[in-house]
Fold these 4 entries.
Entry 1:
Amino acid sequence: MPGGRCSLCDASRQMVDPIASAHALEFNGRTLRLHTLDESALSQLMVLERDAHSHPWSETNMSRSLQRQRVFGLLEGQEIRAFAVFSLVLDEAELLDFVVDPAQQGLGLGGAFLGLCLKQISPPACRVFLEVRQSNEPAIALYLGAGFAEVGIRQNYYPAPNGGREDAILMAMELVD
Ligand SMILES: CC(C)(COP(=O)(O)OP(=O)(O)OC[C@H]1O[C@@H](n2cnc3c(N)ncnc32)[C@H](O)[C@@H]1OP(=O)(O)O)[C@@H](O)C(=O)NCCC(=O)NCCS
């Protein structure tokens, strides 16, 4: 993996999630695997983060998330094709970041990966929340397709180009076994 390794790529490391490693995704003749990521993935995540977002997280933010949150990666061989950051408190989860490599977008990978991630966090999570930019049509389509519903608006929540602000749509989903 250029610029970083996931925990499962290094057999000597102990931060291996045996449940996550079991999840393989057969996708249009390709095999991708869900892994739990640790800090060794930081540089590769930052490349994807900066390529995918108009207002990317800082490296400090990403590093802290890799230490404290559940971060899943969808790997094809050694390459991370997508990643997701969840915070988990008791039975509530929040999806804090979700990125598909821009070169891989629009193929259905995001929907398939999100489904795998939701299976990973439930249990213990019974519900998931997220915030998304009102203008982010692909993400809103992805979340509605996965079963999320709009539950509110946070006005002027996000910074927007030209110094403006943009509303966030709050979405939630109950997870059932
Ligand atoms: C949002 C994102 C994760 C979607 O990933 P993806 O792999 O391209 O999504 P999929 O191919 O699985 O498509 C998911 C849905 O979005 C729709 N979609 C994809 N690209 C779209 C576009 N440009 N405009 C409108 N809808 C679009 C698809 O049709 C699909 O809807 P459907 O299930 O009703 O057919 C990806 O675009 C991304 O990483 N964006 C940048 C980071 C980001 O905005 N993350 C979300 C933060 S809240």
Note: DSSP finds five helices and eight strands in the chain.
Entry 2:
Amino acid sequence: MELDRVNVHYGAHHAVRDASMVVRRNQITAMIGPSGCGKSTVLRSLNRMNDLVNGARVTGGVTYRGQDIYAPNVDPIQVRRHIGMVFQKANPFPKSIFDNVAYGLRINGMTDNLADRVEQALRGAALWDEVKDNLKKSGLALSGGQQQRLCIARTIAVEPDVVLMDEPCSALDPIATVKVEELMHELAQTYTIVIVTHNMQQAARVSKYTAFFSADLDEAGERYGHLVEFDDTAKIFSSPSDQRTEDYITGRFG
Ligand SMILES: Nc1ncnc2c1ncn2[C@@H]1O[C@H](COP(=O)(O)OP(=O)(O)OP(=O)(O)O)[C@@H](O)[C@H]1O
Ligand SMILES: [Mg+2]
């Protein structure tokens, strides 16, 4: 995917200015930066999730495999099938484990071999062994870490290309976090992953590329988010080009 000078407004507030970066296929790209710098906003612009936010307006170019995902003839529902999302707080539906995973498959008419598809998605999310004898149990009865993996299974069930994750581990304990991080490495063999994280060690551990965002005040004193630096994760964390990145990763700021 490619972002070319993406700008996002919420009503009159110009929240993100001129963010340009690339998301490489089958790699994990991390987005880091202080609170309010626009990470979630930019992430949501990658699958038209901001369409669902009142007053949000995205301008600039977002292309997926060379195609403008904001072009008038593009169906946002189709965009979200190819570019799925996992949220910060696990949000299983009040349905059985099976029906949670089958949900998107049914909506998208992918109901041939439904049970196989559900099993594959649960295996892909490293949850199958823990739930295979209890598929009728409510998704809400699982632990937090299991619920997040259930949501990952629900997302990958419809076979997206890109999986967007907004702080997927922030509500998890260290053991569940390690599980989800290991899972990310496995998923990256099949999917392209973009993860927003506040945890810099996590960004350094899991990602190949990192985008560092920051928030600044404009001439009128209005706060806006922007992309400071995008590079190989190894470079961002060892010898960043921008002093602001250096200050952030060394903990002098944010
Ligand atoms: N739904 C919304 N309506 C209005 N303004 C919003 C909305 N979501 C975000 N904003 C504004 O856009 C700016 C960027 O917010 P965003 O949530 O993208 O930041 P973030 O980097 O994800 O922060 P955090 O690390 O706290 O999650 C902020 O000024 C925020 O107030
Ligand atoms: Mg956020």
Note: Residues 2-89+162-249 form a domain with the Rossmann fold fold (CATH 3.40.50.300).
Entry 3:
Amino acid sequence: MKSASLAIRDNAEPEDVALFSSFITSATFWLLFTTAVGLLLSFKFPYPDWATSPFLSFGRLRAIHTNGTFYGWASIALSGTAIYVAARTSGIGVSNKWLAWLSLACYNLAAICGTITLDLGINYGDQEYREWVWWVKIIFLLGVLLSGLAIVQTVANRVEREIYISNWYTIGGFVFTPILAIVAIIPAYQVGLGQVAVQGFYMHNAVGMWFTFLALGITYYALPKLLNRPIYSYALGVLGFWTNLVFYPVIGAHHFEFSPLPWWFQTLAIVFSVGMLVPVWAGTANFALTMRARGETVRRSYALPFIVVGVAYYFLGSTQGTVEAFRSLQTIWHFTSFTIGHSHATMYGFITFIAWGGIYALLPRATGKQPSLLATGLHFWFATIGVTAYVIALSIGGTIQGLAWAAGNPFIASVDAAAPFWVARAVAGSLMFLAHIIFAYNVYLMTLAPGPESDHWEPPKRGKAATA
Ligand code: HEM
């Protein structure tokens, strides 16, 4: 993998470069910490008697892993990149830099307090991805609002007439997520079935309206930039945006099929899950057609291979989600490790790979410092082989588990049958974690390592976007 494009340096304001670098170094810390926790969790399956102190118990560490990867790693990495993209596409610097700095402080404070409280056993209960107590969630929400405001102000001050498609997605994510967070925090309806409905709404939309929107926004910027050609179709991008908004908010109840939630509501969630094929296939087709006949450019780039894997997992993971929603398949897969495979296909294969692609595409252009070629290659292959092995192992193991339950075998028989696949997951996870250490080294090279100074910024001429 070799990139010719890395010689190009953005004419970004030094403080914007510092902002972007700080978001990415913080996010990298959270990636390392929370996936070390994930790795420990994966070894607890084959060795359940290992590390049994309450502070290292599965229940506490699992929530630390999921909340930390969501709100520490992915949210900080995607918000930092989205802020930088908003400035580049608007042809100006970030309009209100202190909002962005304050947002980074809130994100980090929330992740620190969330991790400590969860490890002390202080939590909101077993509501997945919202186990943080209310005041920690409010600090995180503040972070989202401040980053969102910084982006909206920057886009409002743009020199271009059009709002670039990336910013449609990004602003969509920043508008919808506070609604989600407020619904999740307010105690109204959070009893009995109301709580189940709110949980379905929250957990699936955190993935769909936050991570997916930000990741798509970054792809719509990085892909044309790296290939040096326009996106295949602006119209397909807009179709994807609006159909995402129509279908996503209702599909969360597919996590609660066969529950006491009204049957019609579950059916609606299944129908809308099928509707999700429209934005997913429109987005995938748009990205694939933008990359058509550019295999050599992809092969020679640091960033593009990550985006190719990210787009492939967007297609596979999301299409799998539609198929998984059918009642006939949920009878087998519900509650099994198959779902964990699906979560990592989407949150890791799609979201994390797109975040890496965006970082490798934009951070060297911002700082003028390049990652190591060898380290990037190792990062790419370890992470790609690792996540693919992870997903395959749990898909097979989860199916065997579900079939054993459906056959009415004793529960321990399903544990014995799934055990080899959990060992395979721990091995795959070790490879993924190794990839994260290598990525952290590259982030160091692209940010803190000695290199060209970033003070040769020239104010851009008005009327000419910095993205040109
Ligand atoms: C070294 C890499 C990683 C390893 C070894 C790992 C391992 C694990 C383990 C063991 C679990 C608990 C599974 C269970 O309860 O059966 C888990 C859950 C989860 N992880 Fe990871 N993980 C890694 C990276 C990530 C990343 C980067 C993300 C997100 C950006 C992520 C998101 C999740 C989610 C959402 C769940 C909950 C899944 C569900 O309940 O459906 N993981 N992970």
Note: The CA atoms of residues 337 and 398 lie 4 Å apart.
Entry 4:
Amino acid sequence: MQLSVKMIKISRKEAKAQGLKHYFTGIQCINGHTTFRFTANSTCGECLLATHKNYLKTEHGKAVQKAYDRGEKAKQAHRVRKKDPRVKKMNRRDGAKRRAAKLERTPSWVDHEAISRIYLFCPNGYEVDHIIPLQGKLVSGLHVPDNLQYLTCTENRIKYNAFEIE
Ligand SMILES: [Zn+2]
């Protein structure tokens, strides 16, 4: 980590007035650092960095860093995977399959407007789910209003997995 803040002398009061997050007076902190401080609590930047570094050496800090790295690695892996032509092809095929199933499982008598309304009014954080999946292994549901429900994204994943295992 690098501390890169422009060292222009400005008092805390002035920084506050200007809405700046940092200020710099040129006066040493109790630990002898001459660097910027945070306007909010006048903490020295170097001291905070040292505290952070020490924290990362503790068991809990190590665990937090590890969890963070894992998350970053997973994100990176996902980004790389998405660019793989084989994965791209698979995703395209799955999408095409899903769209075809939807068409195939939509009866001619269906109330298209009612379906559109269900999708349109889907609350934030929810997904429209087919109660009986369109491409179920045992039974296949229809793309009709009666077979639609709102599920949270998490619920939807859990349900998807349950159907996949059965
Ligand atoms: Zn300091």
Note: The pocket of zinc ion is lined by residues 29, 31, 33, 44, 46-47 (CB under 6 Å).
